[in-house]
Every structure is written in C-alpha cells, then in structure tokens.
C-alpha cells in the first residue's frame, strides 16, 4: 500500500508586503474614505427593531431574566398579570394572575397584599391543581433571589432574608429608618447584598454576619442598582440624571460617571459579559439586557419590544468575506475614532469662564457626599447615648 501525503505551506504562497510609507503615499487617505463609507452605511442599514410580544392589558412594569434559559423571560404588569414568554417562538407559554418582581429557577411573585408566592414555571399537569407556596412579608415591597442557595431577600422598610418553607425571616438588617427601594444579591460573592434607599444612600450588607457593612451617600437619589456579573466588586447605580460605576472596596470615588442623560435613569442592567450595559430613562419603562446581541424593553404601551444591541449588525450566518470585512471596518473605526466625522468630540464646559474663577472638581468626586462604615456609626450612637446619661 502506497500512502502519499500532501503538504501545504502557506509561506510559499503568501506574497510579503512592504510597509514602507514612501511606497504607499495615499494609504491614509484611502483608509479614511473606507471608514467614512462604512460609518455612513451603518446608519443606512440600521434596523434595530426585531419583534414585539403582545398580549398584556396594562403597562409592563417589570422584566426578569432566567439564570439558565435565555429563551425564557417573565414579565409583570400593573394589573397583577404575569406572563412567561418563549423568545425563540415569540409567544406566551403561561399566564399567572400575580405580580412578579424576581425570578430564579422557580417563579416568585410579590403582590399588593404583602405576600410572596412561589410558583412552578411549567403548567400543571392533567387534573393537577396548582398551589402556590405563600410567605407573609407584612410590609415589604420588593424581592430578589439568591444565586445559589434556596433563600431570597425582601426589602421595604428593612431588608429581610427568607428561607424556603419558613414562615419567619432568617435575619433582618436595617440602617436606621431608611426606606429601601431596590436590593440585589451579588452574582459572584453571593453572601454580599446591596440596597439603595430613599434618602440617597447605597448600603452594603453581609448575609453571613447579618449586619450592614458600610454605605455611601450621594447628592441625589439612586433609583436602582445592578452588580457586574463578571467582576465581583463592581456595581452600577442608576441615579437621577447620572449612572455611576462603583468599586465596593473604594466607595469614596466612583470608577466611572456616565453622564449626558436627559432625565432620571430608572433602570440599568449589565450584559452577560459585563462589558456593556443598558439603561432606561423614560417614564414607566424597564429595560433588560438578555444576551449580548439583544435588548428587551417593556413600557406603558402594553408591549414588550425586542431590539438588536447593534442596530446595523446582520443576523444569521456570515460568510468568511463578510467576517473579514466586518473586522477590517472595526479596526478602521478604532484607528479614526477621534476624527470629528467618525466620533464627535466633547464640549468644553468651562471654556466661557474666567481662567481660575471656577474650581475644577473631578466628576467622580462631585456627587459623593460621605462614606459611612457600620462600626463608626455604632460608636457615634454609643457616644451620644453616654452624653444623655451624663
């Protein structure tokens, strides 16, 4: 038996390129024309809207993500109806007459009657009666589920940790008399919780020690918060007219300040990669990043809209030539990103002021009022108490 082997050495068939700039005097001009055409074509072929999910009879006030199934999304409306959607089929697979605020594995709903109910995602079988497990939370208004353990947290006047099949909370945590508007478990450091209160505070809690750790006071109220799914110590706070990225180890200065919002930011969420985020700043609207390519958006129009994160991105299978062209155009945009026709430059806000008359304060320092630790707070209370006794 004879065996013949064919060898293919690419070095023998690739013509080496001479990068001497004197041999390519018009290279920069040609690349600029190409990137300018690519930028204009993106605007021409931008079609961000994909589909809508219709069926609700009231404004959509809440969307949630399934931790394991990207195709399953529950939505809640103001009239107490919950619908579970299948995104691949673009249809509703189940309807529950409750109000949803959190979702993980099972479906947990919280209603105006101050109760939390636990449901199964699947429909009940033939001649099977479904009975939801009810927890009486008395005064709380929001809920978030632990990412690994069978516990969940409710928030309102205080932060309560509940275990499944328990009628009383495992522990309760509060910092004075702050009304909590939002609370979230950390996706990586799952024993860490954070909450934002009505008096401009963001508070960190340790579920293991059942105590609050520290809080940061901002100059304006925080509407909601969100943990980065890939970086354990990074979270984002949706503030009135600004969005802040914080490192919980250094709360005195935000990592980044995202500005130029025209109204109060009501909701914010990270993409699964943690590199992108989406926010909502329109009245009665909620937005959730479901994957890296799509955005789900619900509003008071009684519909849930599905959008592309990149408006001009082509869906489906790309050929090798299309992938190469996409990669080449992206590199050209990165090279010419500071050109005014490719990306507009920022406006100098103090150019009309007299030099030296306006003190320059860092945008990261401008919005922080104070950072308070829990032990320092207890020491102040004990000192005031001793003064009263004397």
TrEMBL record:
Alphabetical list of SUPFAM superfamilies matching this protein: WD40 repeat-like (SSF50978)
Pfam families: Sof1, WD40
Record-annotated Sof1-like protein domain positions: 309-343
InterPro entries: Sof1 (IPR007287), WD40/YVTN_repeat-like_dom_sf (IPR015943), WD40_repeat_dom_sf (IPR036322), WD40_rpt (IPR001680), WD_repeat_DCAF13/WDSOF1 (IPR051733)
Transmembrane segments: 368-388
Major localization listed first in the record, in broad terms: nucleus
GO cellular component: small-subunit processome
Biological processes per GO annotation: maturation of SSU-rRNA from tricistronic rRNA transcript (SSU-rRNA, 5.8S rRNA, LSU-rRNA)
Cited Gene3D superfamilies: YVTN repeat-like/Quinoprotein amine dehydrogenase
Localization in the cell: Nucleus, Nucleolus
Keyword annotations from UniProtKB, A to Z: Membrane, Nucleus, Repeat, Ribonucleoprotein, rRNA processing, Transmembrane, Transmembrane helix, WD repeat
Ranges of the WD repeats in the UniProt entry: 53-95
Family: Belongs to the WD repeat DCAF13/WDSOF1 family.
Protein name: Sof1-like protein domain-containing protein
Organism: Cercocebus atys
